[in-house]
Design brief:
326 residues; alpha+beta; Phosphorylase Kinase, domain 1; binds adenosine-5'-diphosphate; binds magnesium ion; kinase; Serine/threonine-protein kinase 17A; Protein_kinase_ATP_BS
Protein backbone atom coordinates (compact mmCIF):
# COMPACT_ATOMS: atom_id res chain seq x y z
CA UNK A 1 0.00 0.00 0.00
CA UNK A 2 1.34 3.46 -0.83
CA UNK A 3 1.96 5.93 1.98
CA UNK A 4 -0.48 8.43 0.48
CA UNK A 5 -4.20 8.27 1.15
CA UNK A 6 -5.51 4.75 0.72
CA UNK A 7 -8.98 4.01 -0.53
CA UNK A 8 -11.07 0.94 -0.50
CA UNK A 9 -13.54 0.05 -3.20
CA UNK A 10 -16.34 2.12 -1.70
CA UNK A 11 -14.33 5.35 -1.58
CA UNK A 12 -13.58 5.12 2.13
CA UNK A 13 -10.42 6.78 3.40
CA UNK A 14 -8.33 4.45 5.57
CA UNK A 15 -5.45 6.60 6.72
CA UNK A 16 -5.71 8.90 9.73
CA UNK A 17 -3.25 11.19 11.45
CA UNK A 18 -4.94 11.43 14.87
CA UNK A 19 -3.44 9.46 17.71
CA UNK A 20 -6.08 7.04 18.99
CA UNK A 21 -5.92 7.16 22.78
CA UNK A 22 -6.50 3.95 24.70
CA UNK A 23 -6.36 5.46 28.18
CA UNK A 24 -9.66 6.14 29.90
CA UNK A 25 -11.91 8.79 28.32
CA UNK A 26 -13.88 8.91 31.57
CA UNK A 27 -10.86 9.91 33.63
CA UNK A 28 -10.12 12.82 31.28
CA UNK A 29 -13.70 14.04 30.71
CA UNK A 30 -16.84 14.50 32.84
CA UNK A 31 -20.16 13.88 31.13
CA UNK A 32 -22.59 16.80 31.46
CA UNK A 33 -26.39 16.72 31.26
CA UNK A 34 -28.42 14.53 29.00
CA UNK A 35 -27.69 13.29 25.50
CA UNK A 36 -27.27 15.78 22.67
CA UNK A 37 -28.42 13.32 20.07
CA UNK A 38 -28.59 9.70 19.06
CA UNK A 39 -28.48 7.75 15.82
CA UNK A 40 -28.60 4.05 14.95
CA UNK A 41 -25.03 3.30 16.00
CA UNK A 42 -23.95 6.40 17.89
CA UNK A 43 -24.85 8.47 20.91
CA UNK A 44 -23.59 12.02 21.40
CA UNK A 45 -23.13 13.48 24.89
CA UNK A 46 -21.94 16.83 26.17
CA UNK A 47 -18.79 16.63 28.26
CA UNK A 48 -16.11 18.73 29.95
CA UNK A 49 -12.37 18.19 29.59
CA UNK A 50 -11.15 17.82 33.16
CA UNK A 51 -8.03 19.93 33.35
CA UNK A 52 -9.18 22.73 30.98
CA UNK A 53 -12.90 22.92 31.86
CA UNK A 54 -13.66 23.26 28.12
CA UNK A 55 -16.92 21.80 26.80
CA UNK A 56 -17.02 19.25 23.97
CA UNK A 57 -19.48 16.84 22.35
CA UNK A 58 -18.40 13.20 22.64
CA UNK A 59 -19.72 10.90 19.88
CA UNK A 60 -19.66 7.27 21.06
CA UNK A 61 -19.61 4.97 18.03
CA UNK A 62 -20.17 1.22 18.32
CA UNK A 63 -17.53 -0.77 16.44
CA UNK A 64 -19.77 -3.82 15.95
CA UNK A 65 -22.99 -3.24 14.06
CA UNK A 66 -25.41 -5.97 13.03
CA UNK A 67 -22.72 -8.50 13.86
CA UNK A 68 -20.14 -6.84 11.59
CA UNK A 69 -16.89 -5.10 12.42
CA UNK A 70 -17.39 -1.48 11.34
CA UNK A 71 -14.15 -0.02 12.68
CA UNK A 72 -13.09 1.04 9.17
CA UNK A 73 -16.28 3.09 8.74
CA UNK A 74 -15.33 5.03 11.86
CA UNK A 75 -11.74 5.44 10.67
CA UNK A 76 -13.19 6.87 7.42
CA UNK A 77 -15.30 9.35 9.45
CA UNK A 78 -12.18 10.45 11.36
CA UNK A 79 -10.10 10.72 8.18
CA UNK A 80 -12.68 13.01 6.56
CA UNK A 81 -12.90 15.22 9.66
CA UNK A 82 -9.11 15.52 9.45
CA UNK A 83 -9.18 16.45 5.75
CA UNK A 84 -11.76 19.18 6.52
CA UNK A 85 -9.99 20.44 9.64
CA UNK A 86 -8.96 23.80 8.20
CA UNK A 87 -12.52 24.72 7.20
CA UNK A 88 -14.26 26.62 9.99
CA UNK A 89 -17.76 25.45 8.99
CA UNK A 90 -16.96 21.77 9.52
CA UNK A 91 -17.00 20.62 13.15
CA UNK A 92 -13.56 20.39 14.70
CA UNK A 93 -12.22 17.01 15.91
CA UNK A 94 -10.34 17.44 19.20
CA UNK A 95 -9.37 13.88 20.23
CA UNK A 96 -10.14 10.20 19.60
CA UNK A 97 -10.39 7.39 22.18
CA UNK A 98 -10.89 3.66 21.64
CA UNK A 99 -12.24 0.99 23.99
CA UNK A 100 -12.93 -2.67 23.25
CA UNK A 101 -16.43 -1.89 21.99
CA UNK A 102 -16.41 1.78 20.96
CA UNK A 103 -14.53 4.63 19.35
CA UNK A 104 -15.18 8.02 20.94
CA UNK A 105 -14.80 11.19 18.86
CA UNK A 106 -14.33 14.28 21.02
CA UNK A 107 -15.79 17.06 18.87
CA UNK A 108 -16.16 20.81 19.15
CA UNK A 109 -19.46 21.46 20.97
CA UNK A 110 -22.06 23.23 18.82
CA UNK A 111 -24.21 24.84 21.51
CA UNK A 112 -27.02 26.02 19.18
CA UNK A 113 -28.07 22.48 18.23
CA UNK A 114 -29.59 21.32 14.94
CA UNK A 115 -30.99 23.84 12.44
CA UNK A 116 -33.82 21.28 12.26
CA UNK A 117 -35.41 22.93 15.31
CA UNK A 118 -35.79 26.29 13.55
CA UNK A 119 -36.91 24.56 10.35
CA UNK A 120 -39.96 23.13 12.10
CA UNK A 121 -40.57 26.13 14.42
CA UNK A 122 -43.56 28.50 14.32
CA UNK A 123 -43.23 31.46 11.98
CA UNK A 124 -41.95 33.97 14.59
CA UNK A 125 -39.16 31.60 15.68
CA UNK A 126 -38.41 30.26 12.20
CA UNK A 127 -35.49 31.53 10.10
CA UNK A 128 -35.95 34.80 8.26
CA UNK A 129 -34.79 34.77 4.62
CA UNK A 130 -31.82 36.99 5.54
CA UNK A 131 -30.75 34.42 8.17
CA UNK A 132 -31.06 31.63 5.63
CA UNK A 133 -28.86 33.54 3.16
CA UNK A 134 -26.10 33.93 5.76
CA UNK A 135 -26.33 30.30 6.91
CA UNK A 136 -26.49 28.89 3.36
CA UNK A 137 -23.32 30.82 2.45
CA UNK A 138 -21.60 29.11 5.38
CA UNK A 139 -22.97 25.67 4.45
CA UNK A 140 -21.75 26.20 0.87
CA UNK A 141 -18.36 27.37 2.10
CA UNK A 142 -17.99 24.07 4.01
CA UNK A 143 -19.39 21.93 1.21
CA UNK A 144 -17.29 23.58 -1.53
CA UNK A 145 -14.22 22.92 0.62
CA UNK A 146 -15.21 19.24 0.88
CA UNK A 147 -15.93 18.99 -2.84
CA UNK A 148 -12.64 20.74 -3.64
CA UNK A 149 -11.00 17.88 -1.74
CA UNK A 150 -13.07 15.24 -3.57
CA UNK A 151 -15.17 14.50 -0.52
CA UNK A 152 -18.94 14.04 -0.71
CA UNK A 153 -20.91 14.27 2.53
CA UNK A 154 -23.95 12.24 1.36
CA UNK A 155 -26.10 12.97 4.42
CA UNK A 156 -26.72 16.73 4.32
CA UNK A 157 -29.98 17.39 6.19
CA UNK A 158 -31.14 19.73 8.99
CA UNK A 159 -30.20 17.21 11.71
CA UNK A 160 -26.55 17.23 10.55
CA UNK A 161 -26.20 21.01 10.27
CA UNK A 162 -25.61 22.55 13.69
CA UNK A 163 -25.30 26.08 15.05
CA UNK A 164 -22.63 27.46 17.39
CA UNK A 165 -25.40 29.33 19.23
CA UNK A 166 -29.13 29.68 18.89
CA UNK A 167 -30.09 33.07 20.29
CA UNK A 168 -28.50 35.17 18.92
CA UNK A 169 -28.25 33.00 15.84
CA UNK A 170 -24.67 31.76 15.50
CA UNK A 171 -22.67 30.09 12.78
CA UNK A 172 -22.85 26.76 10.96
CA UNK A 173 -20.98 23.59 11.86
CA UNK A 174 -21.45 20.63 9.49
CA UNK A 175 -21.38 17.28 11.35
CA UNK A 176 -21.86 13.53 10.77
CA UNK A 177 -19.41 12.26 8.19
CA UNK A 178 -20.59 8.69 8.74
CA UNK A 179 -21.69 8.24 5.11
CA UNK A 180 -19.05 10.50 3.54
CA UNK A 181 -16.84 9.18 0.79
CA UNK A 182 -13.95 10.18 -1.37
CA UNK A 183 -14.94 10.45 -5.04
CA UNK A 184 -12.66 10.61 -8.02
CA UNK A 185 -13.01 10.12 -11.75
CA UNK A 186 -12.42 6.40 -11.80
CA UNK A 187 -14.26 5.30 -8.73
CA UNK A 188 -18.03 5.09 -8.64
CA UNK A 189 -20.20 4.31 -5.67
CA UNK A 190 -23.48 2.62 -6.36
CA UNK A 191 -25.53 1.90 -3.27
CA UNK A 192 -28.62 3.33 -1.67
CA UNK A 193 -27.82 5.38 1.35
CA UNK A 194 -28.79 8.62 3.02
CA UNK A 195 -32.10 9.78 4.40
CA UNK A 196 -35.23 9.27 2.23
CA UNK A 197 -36.38 12.91 2.05
CA UNK A 198 -32.95 14.25 1.11
CA UNK A 199 -31.56 11.63 -1.31
CA UNK A 200 -30.99 12.56 -4.93
CA UNK A 201 -32.69 10.76 -7.86
CA UNK A 202 -29.38 9.21 -9.00
CA UNK A 203 -29.11 7.36 -5.69
CA UNK A 204 -32.55 5.84 -6.23
CA UNK A 205 -31.51 4.81 -9.76
CA UNK A 206 -28.22 3.27 -8.59
CA UNK A 207 -26.35 5.75 -10.77
CA UNK A 208 -22.93 7.16 -9.95
CA UNK A 209 -22.61 9.37 -6.90
CA UNK A 210 -20.77 12.64 -7.46
CA UNK A 211 -20.51 15.97 -5.70
CA UNK A 212 -23.80 16.89 -7.45
CA UNK A 213 -25.54 14.42 -5.12
CA UNK A 214 -24.81 16.75 -2.18
CA UNK A 215 -26.03 19.74 -4.19
CA UNK A 216 -29.47 18.13 -4.55
CA UNK A 217 -29.63 17.73 -0.75
CA UNK A 218 -28.68 21.41 -0.36
CA UNK A 219 -31.63 22.29 -2.63
CA UNK A 220 -33.96 20.29 -0.35
CA UNK A 221 -32.33 21.84 2.73
CA UNK A 222 -32.83 25.42 1.50
CA UNK A 223 -36.46 24.67 0.59
CA UNK A 224 -37.05 23.39 4.13
CA UNK A 225 -35.18 26.28 5.80
CA UNK A 226 -37.28 28.86 3.94
CA UNK A 227 -40.71 27.21 4.01
CA UNK A 228 -40.65 24.72 6.88
CA UNK A 229 -41.95 22.13 4.41
CA UNK A 230 -40.07 19.02 3.30
CA UNK A 231 -40.71 19.15 -0.47
CA UNK A 232 -40.67 15.43 -1.31
CA UNK A 233 -42.02 13.93 1.92
CA UNK A 234 -44.80 11.47 1.19
CA UNK A 235 -46.92 9.27 3.44
CA UNK A 236 -44.35 6.50 3.25
CA UNK A 237 -40.85 5.85 1.93
CA UNK A 238 -42.14 4.62 -1.44
CA UNK A 239 -44.21 7.73 -2.14
CA UNK A 240 -41.28 9.95 -1.04
CA UNK A 241 -39.03 8.10 -3.52
CA UNK A 242 -41.66 8.48 -6.25
CA UNK A 243 -41.94 12.23 -5.60
CA UNK A 244 -38.15 12.51 -5.85
CA UNK A 245 -37.83 10.56 -9.07
CA UNK A 246 -40.63 12.61 -10.67
CA UNK A 247 -39.05 15.80 -9.20
CA UNK A 248 -42.56 16.61 -8.02
CA UNK A 249 -42.12 19.91 -6.15
CA UNK A 250 -44.66 22.51 -5.10
CA UNK A 251 -43.35 25.98 -5.96
CA UNK A 252 -46.77 27.59 -5.53
CA UNK A 253 -47.17 31.15 -4.29
CA UNK A 254 -48.89 30.27 -1.04
CA UNK A 255 -45.86 28.22 0.03
CA UNK A 256 -43.37 30.85 -1.14
CA UNK A 257 -45.32 33.88 0.10
CA UNK A 258 -42.91 36.60 1.27
CA UNK A 259 -39.89 34.73 -0.12
CA UNK A 260 -37.84 36.36 -2.88
CA UNK A 261 -37.82 35.15 -6.49
CA UNK A 262 -34.04 34.87 -6.27
CA UNK A 263 -34.44 32.30 -3.48
CA UNK A 264 -36.79 30.32 -5.68
CA UNK A 265 -34.35 30.52 -8.59
CA UNK A 266 -31.55 29.30 -6.30
CA UNK A 267 -33.55 26.21 -5.24
CA UNK A 268 -34.57 25.51 -8.85
CA UNK A 269 -30.92 25.53 -9.93
CA UNK A 270 -30.34 22.58 -7.55
CA UNK A 271 -33.50 20.43 -7.71
CA UNK A 272 -32.76 19.28 -11.26
CA UNK A 273 -32.92 15.56 -12.05
CA UNK A 274 -29.81 15.43 -14.26
CA UNK A 275 -26.85 15.78 -11.87
CA UNK A 276 -24.71 17.31 -14.64
CA UNK A 277 -27.13 20.23 -14.98
CA UNK A 278 -27.25 21.01 -11.24
CA UNK A 279 -25.37 24.07 -9.97
CA UNK A 280 -22.04 23.33 -8.28
CA UNK A 281 -21.12 24.65 -4.83
CA UNK A 282 -18.81 27.32 -6.26
CA UNK A 283 -21.50 28.47 -8.72
CA UNK A 284 -24.03 28.65 -5.88
CA UNK A 285 -21.71 30.90 -3.90
CA UNK A 286 -21.88 33.34 -6.83
CA UNK A 287 -25.67 33.17 -7.17
CA UNK A 288 -27.24 36.65 -6.85
CA UNK A 289 -29.57 35.43 -4.06
CA UNK A 290 -26.60 35.12 -1.71
CA UNK A 291 -25.56 38.72 -2.29
CA UNK A 292 -29.08 40.16 -2.31
CA UNK A 293 -29.64 42.94 0.19
CA UNK A 294 -32.55 42.03 2.41
CA UNK A 295 -33.06 43.71 5.77
CA UNK A 296 -30.24 42.67 8.13
CA UNK A 297 -31.56 40.63 11.07
CA UNK A 298 -30.06 40.92 14.54
CA UNK A 299 -27.63 38.04 14.73
CA UNK A 300 -24.20 37.21 15.99
CA UNK A 301 -21.54 37.99 13.43
CA UNK A 302 -18.61 35.77 12.69
CA UNK A 303 -16.28 38.50 14.01
CA UNK A 304 -18.12 38.79 17.34
CA UNK A 305 -17.92 35.04 17.79
CA UNK A 306 -14.24 34.97 16.88
CA UNK A 307 -13.61 37.73 19.40
CA UNK A 308 -15.14 35.72 22.21
CA UNK A 309 -12.97 32.75 21.24
CA UNK A 310 -9.88 34.86 20.67
CA UNK A 311 -8.05 33.73 23.80
CA UNK A 312 -7.70 30.28 22.21
CA UNK A 313 -7.58 30.89 18.48
CA UNK A 314 -6.80 33.71 16.17
CA UNK A 315 -8.77 33.65 12.89
CA UNK A 316 -6.84 32.59 9.84
CA UNK A 317 -6.86 34.62 6.65
CA UNK A 318 -9.63 32.52 5.04
CA UNK A 319 -11.86 33.30 8.02
CA UNK A 320 -11.11 37.02 7.68
CA UNK A 321 -12.28 36.98 4.07
CA UNK A 322 -15.50 35.29 5.21
CA UNK A 323 -15.96 37.75 8.05
CA UNK A 324 -15.69 40.62 5.64
CA UNK A 325 -18.33 39.17 3.35
CA UNK A 326 -21.06 38.45 5.88
P1 LIG B 1 -25.48 9.93 13.68
O1 LIG B 1 -24.45 9.37 12.75
O2 LIG B 1 -25.91 8.95 14.71
O3 LIG B 1 -26.61 10.63 12.99
P2 LIG B 1 -24.45 12.57 14.37
O4 LIG B 1 -23.00 12.87 14.24
O5 LIG B 1 -25.36 13.15 13.34
O6 LIG B 1 -24.65 11.00 14.53
O7 LIG B 1 -24.95 13.05 15.80
C1 LIG B 1 -26.28 12.81 16.23
C2 LIG B 1 -26.86 14.10 16.78
O8 LIG B 1 -26.08 14.53 17.93
C3 LIG B 1 -26.82 15.31 15.83
O9 LIG B 1 -27.94 15.30 14.97
C4 LIG B 1 -26.86 16.47 16.82
O10 LIG B 1 -28.16 16.69 17.29
C5 LIG B 1 -26.01 15.95 17.98
N1 LIG B 1 -24.60 16.35 17.81
C6 LIG B 1 -23.67 15.73 17.04
N2 LIG B 1 -22.48 16.36 17.08
C7 LIG B 1 -22.65 17.43 17.90
C8 LIG B 1 -21.79 18.51 18.32
N3 LIG B 1 -20.52 18.57 17.91
N4 LIG B 1 -22.30 19.46 19.15
C9 LIG B 1 -23.60 19.38 19.55
N5 LIG B 1 -24.45 18.40 19.19
C10 LIG B 1 -24.00 17.43 18.37
MG1 LIG C 1 -26.66 12.43 11.94
Amino acid sequence: MPETTMMNRKGMVAKILSRIRTDSFHSNYTLLGKELGRGKFAVVKKCMENPSGKEYAAKFLRKRRKGQDCRMDIINEIAILEIAKSNSHVVDLHEVYETTSEIILVLEYAAGGEIFNQCVADKDEAFKEKDVIRLVRQILDGVSYLHGNNIVHLDLKPQNILLTSCNPLGNIRIVDFGLSRRVDNVEEIREIMGTPEYVAPEILNYEAITTATDMWSIGVLVYVMLTGISPFLGDDKQSTYLNISKVDIDYSEDIFEGISNLALDFIQSLLIKDPRKRAKAEQCLNHPWLSSKLEVPKSITESEEEQSESEQNSPDSEELVLMASY
